[in-house]
Amino acid sequence: MTKALVTGCAGFIGSHLTQRLLKDGVSVIGIDGFLDNYDVAAKLRNLAEIGTHPAFTFHSVMLQTQRWEQWLDGVDVVYHLAALPGVRSSWGAAFSDYVSHNILVTQSLLEACLKLPKPPVIVASSSSSVYGTMEGSRTDEQTPLRPISPYGVTKASMEQICQVYVKAFGLPVTMLRYFTVYGPRQRTDMAFHRFFSQMLKGESVSIYGDGQQSRDFTFVSDAVEANLLAARHASPGDIFNIGGDREIKLIDVLNIMGQLLQITPKIQFATGSAGDSLRTCADISFAQTKLGYRPRVGLEDGLRMQLANLRAQNKG
Predict the structure, then answer these.
(1) Which of 129, 131, 171, 249 is surrounded by the fewest CB atoms within 10 Å?
(2) Starting from the edge strand earliest in sequence, which strands make up the sheet with 77-80, in order?
(3) What is the CA radius of gyration of the chain?
């Protein structure tokens, strides 16, 4: 595959994926509308990290303009990462924005791809948002979807519209359910970025809930590798859990962060938010078997790299 379209290329995962593709000799058409759902300056820094590579063509535009014929010209594979994220902000009147960015845009992209020689389309989904709070042991892809937030509803609906195009037209769409991706360039509104930033300033760390909620954390380079593997090995309609090396409680993550900073974190507990999952834990056996996916970066090493990146940003 020699030419890729990456939507959301200035975002957290999208910027890392774009860099990896360019490093691998792939030409990239990148699109980002610079939604102001979090600090736009962070996205501009991500774009600067990609740089002025001769094989990178960037369009600063909203996907709703639907210039698909221009963007998809000569494309061999599509990585659709653009979305409006966030559980807490998806309630109320904002829900219509989530429908537009997460469902309607995806449907229009799939419709445009029907006019091409059926390129692989890799779509970013969300584990905790579509599964809801998980029960039992590790969660596999056959677990019923029980979203508990409006955001989760839009991601589950996005998956359904993808499956419709797979079944009706044989469009080779693959969905990746990420389990809490972290690492350098993580969104400024996400937990690890906030925690490290607060600790570096000597401030108390704010946690929603009691800190006993657990997550399966995935380092960003592992998420990027999953995209590349899916483009090569997935079948139309496949859905893969993409997780990390283990499940861990949030309070224990804070202790690891404190050890890296050689401090004892000061914690302020806040009321838990509606729509937040209490537990996520991925069964990644399907991705391991079919894609050859293996998480390479353990949590301690990943946090160390994220901290180093944040410190470098602060010095700059």
Answers:
(1) 249
(2) 56-60, 27-32, 3-7, 77-80, 121-126, 173-178, 239-242
(3) 19
User: Which of the 8 DSSP states describes residue 145?
Assistant: P
Return the SS3 of 207: strand
Each domain of the chain, given as residue ranges in start order, spans 3-182+219-244+277-296
Catalytic residue list: 151
pLDDT of residue 280: 84
**Chain segment 268-286, per-residue pLDDT in tens:** 988 766 667 788 889 999 9
> CA 213, 214, 220, 225: dihedral to nearest 10 degrees?
-140
Split at pLDDT 50, 70, 90, the class of 111 is: very high
Which residue, 79, 18, 6, is CA-closest to 234? Answer: 79
Contact by Cβ (8 Å): 236, 171: yes
Please say whether the dihedral angle defined by the alpha carbons of residues 286, 291, 294 and 299, taken in this order, is positive or negative.
Answer: negative
pLDDT digits (tens, 9 = 90+) for 122-147: 999 987 789 887 777 788 999 999 89
CA trace torsion 268, 269, 271, 273 (10° rounding) = 90
**What is the CATH number assigned to the segment(s) 3-182+219-244+277-296?**
3.40.50.720
